[in-house]
Specification:
With 434 residues, the chain is of the alpha+beta class. Helices cover 29% and strands 12% of the residues. It has 9 helices and 14 strands. Strands 12-11-10-13 form a 4-stranded mixed sheet. It has a 3-stranded antiparallel sheet with strand order 1-4-14, with helices on one face. A 3-stranded antiparallel sheet has the order 5-6-7, with no helix packed on it. A hairpin with a 2-residue loop joins strand 5 and strand 6. The radius of gyration is 21 Å and the shape is globular. The chain binds fe (ii) ion. The site of fe (ii) ion has 5 residues, from helix 2 and helix 5. Fe (ii) ion (FE2) binds next to helix 2 and helix 5.
């Protein structure tokens, strides 16, 4: 039986809220900030604003006969990787384009908002059309999060958020592992609201008994690995990972810098001492995997992660979120709308813990799993070139981060990145065989 979550199901309302949230994220930027690309892996804010609007045009083109795109020039610049719509502009050259201008992109953004809002006011949209617009809304949520990663890289503490809240206080916690029984587990999205094609169908997987950390790996724990020469010893590293850290001269997570013998990071709060109690953030898969090897443990598979997050053993059912089926709130998790602009300390969200007692499985940092990103058995594509063309050389991450909008996360959500990427808000927890 499908579990009905309390997620809002009103398409127009979700659309309006999402468009407003995008605009609020960039409201305090200077015009110059919109154009600059500070690294090949990030995109200028102007591009994000235009691209999310262009993707809405893509959906309109699939639902309205003879739809004509607003502008060929815009489509070429704003197409990320959809070859069905022509040759995309080079990702690492998005910051070199002064046209379309920032003003033109804003005009385009508002024009598309009005166009789509008019369509969504129609009560008789068929199921397929509704699903496509839900997908476009969720796509925009994904870009809001990418925009936050990029704003940190571009501006760090020169970014002025409209809202900035303090993180809740950490409650006393001690490192703990939780034993979880193996057997058959039915993984995948169990609800009846929007989810991506890669979260379904639900299917059985067999798990051995395992143990999983109740808490995310902290900066203090990770620092021990660094100080123990973790980045100097090949025996902890996958071959590709060892090559990567040699070539890039990595000796710590991204944004870490040793100044006068002390580890400093630079984020939305400025240059600051590493907080030992926050989860480690900005590590690649290679680094997460190397830490686990150093610690004599391993990363969980995504099925192990999901069972630890969502399985209610007492009632023998799976919930949408670790705490149940109630939509995420600021008492449950540190997500974008918490507007804390960094991780909270581990143990800061006891109300969000899973039935098994795992903390912060939603929010704070995406968690690397050892699972390859591919389709579940019985996978059917929901949108050409969106998810399934990435079914190679990527690992699955679960749980969302402090940059993830709360409407777009759930226990079954599968994010994916290449193994060497680390500008996203990613950390991990360890698992062990029994
Ligand atoms: Fe996109």
């Amino acid at each position: 039986m499908a579990i009905v979550s309390e997620q809002k199901s009103n398409l127009l309302q979700q659309f309006n809220e999402t468009r407003i949230r995008t605009l609020k994220l960039v409201q305090t930027l200077e015009k110059d900030d919109f154009v600059v690309q500070t690294a090949p892996f990030m995109s200028p804010p102007k591009w994000h604003l235009g691209h999310v609007s262009w993707l809405l045009e893509v959906v309109m083109s699939k639902t309205i006969s003879n739809y004509e795109f607003y502008s060929q020039e815009f489509s070429e610049y704003l197409n990320s990787y959809y070859h069905q719509f022509g040759e995309p502009h080079d990702k690492d050259k998005r910051g070199l384009a002064t046209r379309p201008t920032v003003d033109q992109v804003f005009e385009y953004f508002h024009m598309i908002t009005n166009k789509v809002a008019n369509i969504l006011q129609n009560d008789s949209l068929d199921e397929k059309t509704q699903q496509l617009f839900f997908m476009a809304i969720n796509h925009e949520c994904q870009h809001q999060e990418l925009l936050v990663y990029d704003l940190q890289h571009l501006l760090a503490d020169r970014y002025r958020p409209l809202t900035k809240n303090s993180a809740p206080e950490q409650l006393k916690q001690k490192s703990q592992t939780i034993k979880i029984d193996g057997g058959l587990y039915k993984m995948g999205y169990p609800g009846d609201q929007f989810c991506y094609d890669i979260e379904i169908p639900e299917h059985n997987v067999y798990l051995n008994d395992y143990k999983i950390d109740a808490y995310l790996i902290t900066n203090m724990q990770y620092m021990k690995f660094v100080d123990d020469g973790g980045y100097d010893n090949f025996k902890y590293w996958l071959s590709d990972g060892w090559d990567k850290i040699q070539n890039e001269k990595w000796n710590a997570p991204m944004y870490w810098e040793k100044i006068d013998g002390e580890w400093i990071t630079c984020d939305f709060h400025g240059k600051r001492r590493i907080n030992p109690n926050e989860p480690v953030c900005h590590v690649s898969y290679y680094e997460a995997d190397a830490y686990c090897k150093w610690a004599g443990k391993r990363l969980p598979t995504e099925a192990e992660w999901e069972k630890a997050a969502c399985w209610d053993k007492k009632n023998q059912l799976k919930t949408i979120f670790p705490w149940g089926n109630e939509s995420p709130d600021t008492v449950h998790a540190n997500l974008l709308e918490s507007y804390i602009w960094s991780c909270a300390e581990v143990g800061a969200y006891p109300n969000g813990k899973s039935h098994y007692g795992c903390h912060q499985m939603i929010g704070d940092v995406w968690e690397w799993t050892s699972s390859e990103f591919c389709g579940y058995p019985g996978f059917k594509t929901g949108f050409s070139e969106y998810n399934d063309k990435w079914f190679a050389n990527q690992k699955v991450l679960r749980g969302g981060s402090f940059g993830t909008p709360s409407t777009s996360i759930r226990g079954s959500y599968r994010n994916f990145f290449r193994l060497d990427e680390r500008w996203l808000f990613a950390g991990f927890r360890c698992a062990e065989d029994i």
